[in-house]
Amino acid sequence: MHTIRVFRHTRESHIEVVIDDGPIDWEMKEHLTTPLPFFNHMLEHIAWRSGLNVKATAKLDGFFLAHVITEDTGTALGRAIDTYLEENASRGMFGYGFAYGTIDEALARVVLSFEKRALFSFNPGSVVLPEETEGLKSEDLIAFFEGFAQGGRATVHLDLIKGRPSHGHHIWEAAFRAFGQALYEVLRRDARREGMTPGVAGSIHFSVDVKTTSDGNTRQIEDKGV
C-alpha cells in the first residue's frame, strides 16, 4: 500500500491531504473535514470514483476565505497525485484518462494528462451555473480544479455538457464524478507500459547554471527528471 501525505502551509492556510491505495475506507466522510460541507461532499465523489482513499483538512489564519480553501486543497491533492504517479512510475500506470460523469439530467466530461504541463481549461458550454450552491460559489469550485492543475503539473479539461439551469448541486456533482472517474483511468496499470510516460517526449530533465556576482563562480543545478 502506498500512502502520500501532503502538507501545504502559507500565511493564509494550513492544508493537509492524504491519499492511499489501501482497502476502501467506508468512513471516508469522517476524514473530509474542511470548513466547507458541500466541498467535502464533492471530495467524497473523487474518492468514491478514483479508487483512492482521500483525507483532507483545512485551517485558515485570519480571514475565512472559501476560495483559499478550495484552491489550496486542490493544489495539495494535485501534488499528492503527481507524487503517487512518480512513486509508481515503474508499474505501468497510464498517467492520462478521460471520463463522463452524470446524475439525472446533468452530464460532464473531464480529460486529464500528467505530463508536467499545468493547464486548466473550463468550458461550461450552454449550461447555466448558479452563482452559489449550498453556500459555496461556483467560482470557488472552479478554483479547486485550477489549484489541482498547478499542484499536479497536469492538464485538466472540464466540459459541462448538460444541466438544468442553475441546478448547481447536480451540475457540480456530475463534474466531480467525472473527475474522480478520470483519475481512476489515470491510475490504471498495464504491464506493457512499465517505464513508459504519458507522452512520447519521455521524462523532462533540466540543467540550470547559476552565477553569483560576489565570487564569479558558476554552479550547475540538475534535477532527477520529471
Give a verbal description of the structure:
This is Imidazoleglycerol-phosphate dehydratase. Keywords: Amino-acid biosynthesis, Histidine biosynthesis, Lyase. One of its GO terms (molecular function) is imidazoleglycerol-phosphate dehydratase activity. It comes from Candidatus Carbonibacillus altaicus. This protein is an alpha+beta fold. It has one domain: 2-Layer Sandwich (Ribosomal Protein S5, domain 2). The protein has 4 helices and 12 strands. The protein has helices at 37-50, 66-87, 138-152, 168-186, and strands at 3-9, 13-20, 32-33, 53-60, 96-103, 106-113, 119-123, 132-133, 136-137, 155-162, 207-211, 218-222. A 4-stranded mixed beta sheet has the order 1-2-4-3, with helices on one face. It has a 4-stranded mixed beta sheet with strand order 5-6-10-7. Helix 1 runs parallel beside helix 4. It starts with a strand and ends with a strand.
